[in-house]
Amino acid sequence: MKSVKRIEATAVLPQKKKIRVAAYCRVSTDADEQLVSLETQKSHYRQHINSNPDWEFAGLYYDEGISATKTDKRLALQQMISDCEAGKIDYIVTKSLSRFARNTTDCLELVRKLQEINVPVFFEKENINTGTMDNEFLLSVMSSLAEGESVSISENEKWSIQNRYANGSYKIGYPPYGYDSNDGEFSINETEAQWIRYIFSETLKGQSLNRISKALISMHVPTRKNGTWNASTVRGIIINEKYTGDCLFQKTFTDFRFKRHPNNGDRDQYLIENHHPGIISHEDFDRANQMIRQHANEKKITKGDKKYTNRYPFSGKIICGECGEKFKRKSNITGALKYPSWVCRVHFHDTKKCSMKGIKEADLERTFMLMLNKLIFARKDVLQTFHDDLKEHNATAIPQRMKAIDAAIDKNTEKKKTLTKIMAQNLLEPSLFIQESNELNAEANSLAAEKESIIQSSAKHVDEIEETEKLIKFTAKAEMFQAFDGELVNNYLDHITVHSQDEVTFHLKCGLSLKERILK
């Protein structure tokens, strides 16, 4: 008789998929105690994530020695966001809102971006999990506090730095070209210092900044950050007092919006003489600076003056249609013929980064005058029609939209009042109240932004109407032009977009854009 043995079934439960958790941490400065804090945070998060059986360690992202006031400078944070978008991370933990972002707008923007791809963030200090949308109102409040804390910390740091300026204990973190630094103490780097001496020597011989930069490029002299020598770089070296051994502190300052400005007497400055070994004598430094000032005076240009950036009619007005950079004026020589042309700054330094070729100045001048002659010829059909359309839009479409927005704002306000009354009577769950309040606040902010945009648009249309009327009045009296007049560029042209060597678009101050083939 056959023997049959029954084998009991064993249920195989599917393994629960682990949540891939990443951590983000940051310290604000390079100070030793802050770097110790960073190491502590890193150790804490590794242990914290690995100790949870439901979690899988997805990485530790950290920025050190970087201010959080602007998120675009925090490379690790940006990399973490990219990895989230690539589906590598399910959940993020971080110490606090102030470590994640110190700006309300940035914080909410980052959180919402992560919410769209279903990646919550947990803030340990505030005990906020953004996976629960009821917390968004709380998140907004807390990040506002963090922003205030950032301003306070920033002001304290500024006060500390100014004290160190005043007592001479401030240490420069990054030495200028020509120097090495050991814990803030400068020593001459002879490999680089020889080129500092070369720059000053050539300047004292009367060489232009542009020629000196070209000579450095032709000799393959390396820069600190693999950049390209140019006239501005050379000028920056010549005006830098550090090459004499002195140090002038607070040449620039940061305002309350964290924007940097040149210090033209707005803040105190601090000069420390004999701060470190000099490469250039004070006499040669003063003579070289006198030379570049004299060169500027001969050309009747002053740095910061309008003439400095607008030496020629097209200066600052030509934009590359490929890379968006401005064009610069340069001289070309073909045989015995010398002529000026305009070329994209990016293309000029690296043709691989931008392929846009230059345009002869004479061709651009002829094309501009051709465009003006067309406007003179077709003034009524083009300019008058454009003017009437602008006035019609400003008189009807804008007021109608403003009326609709004001009505929507009033309706939003009434909804908020009603919601508050219902909540006061305990007829609404707090979580639902917060959710509805957030939606109404978001709608109110959107309406306010649209209203402001329309107000600005209306003001812009008024300016464009005035500019169009000015152009109509001019073309009504003008005769066809035979020669170029640079004053007309200043009067009526806003900017030019170059599409190729054969085609450009003239954007007039009145708002009219006209595409033209280059007249050669």
Could you characterize the architecture of this molecule?
The chain contains 15 helices and 18 strands. About 5% of the residues have low confidence. It is extended. Helix 7 packs across helix 8. Helices cover about 50% and strands about 15% of the residues. The chain is an alpha/beta fold. It has a 5-stranded mixed beta sheet with strand order 2-1-3-4-5, with helices on both faces. It has 3 domains: about 140 residues, Rossmann fold; about 130 residues, Hect, E3 ligase catalytic domain fold (Alpha-Beta Complex), CATH 3.90.1750.20; about 180 residues, no CATH class.
| Rg calculated over all Cα atoms | 32 Å
Mean pLDDT: 79
How big a fraction of the residues is strand? 15-25%
Structural class: alpha/beta
Overall number of domains: 3
Outline the low-pLDDT stretches. 30-34, 140-149, 304-309
Count of DSSP helices? 15
Straight-line N-to-C gap:
108 Å
- How are the strands of the biggest sheet laid out side by side? 2-1-3-4-5
Main sheet specs: 5 strands, mixed
Q: Please give the number of β-strands.
A: 18
Overall, the morphology is: extended
Please bin the fraction of helical residues: 40-55%
Quick structural gist:
This protein is α/β, with parallel strands linked by helices and 520 residues long. The chain contains 15 helices and 18 strands.
